Amino acid sequence: MLTGNVGIEMHRKTPEEVAFLKEIIPGHTYEETLDMFEERFGHRLSKPSLTTWACDNGIKAGTTSKMRRYTDEEREFLDGYVPGHTRKEITDAFNERFEPAITITQVTSYTKNNKLSTGLTGYYEQGHVPANKGTKGMTGANSASFGPGHVPGNLRPVGSERTSKGYIYIKVRDTIPEGGDWRDLWKMKHRVLWEKEKGPIPEGSLVVFINGDRADVRIENLMIVTKSQHAIMNKFGVRGCCEESMRTGKLIADIESKTYRLRKLEFGPLKEMEANKDDKRHGTSTGYQYGCRCERCCSANRIYQFNARQRRRQG
Fold it and tell me: From CA 183, how far away is CA 195, in angstroms rounded?
């Protein structure tokens, strides 16, 4: 039987085969079941088809790996030898006496499953004498000790450059100033060039790349913008263009920012509405959108939000 146009032959199991699989799969691995099925019926199933069939019918196969079965003699030895010995000592002693050998991981599993404890804490007992006691001053500096004024072999001189996330950094000093960090050693190269050519960068401003290439640090490819302008320019996708487009984007950002401030100044205080409680805008969605927080407007807004949720549920 072919399924669609995939061309894979599907085997429909007979009632006898189904009964055989239901009896054999529990307690056996899939490989063992496949071998037994082929020996019994003369043809072999694929492992994916068998695992899918077993899963669909809620039949769980035996374990895929053989568990270590301990004899009574081995259990008696482990139960008596575990206290007071490390797991490595237990493993070595067991392997010298019994076959097949076990690993430290198996010893750990056995002790946990049988709630056995070695009794060892891993701490030094009271009165422990360190092995190097009394050796202070007996040895001097070795050939690998760093002396005063040692210079690391991988120290990079001032003026060295490195790249991170597309930006070029240049080393401007060797030592970290008091209260500083590594960022005082390495500066973005395009900011260093801008300050060298144009002067200090105003607080709250950024130096951006006109063509969007962070590796192009030519002064002709740099432009200074405020963080507000940068955010609005990113919003409208004005970046990585020509100089004319970038300057136009700055103008658009200034217009957007100015418009927002005017709206905020015009509608923010709501002096007229606050002074006149009989204003018709009170208690309407329009009034609330203007920012009024009176009881009528808040109540109207709650009703508006409730109706909006109802419409979304119905739609």
Answer: 17
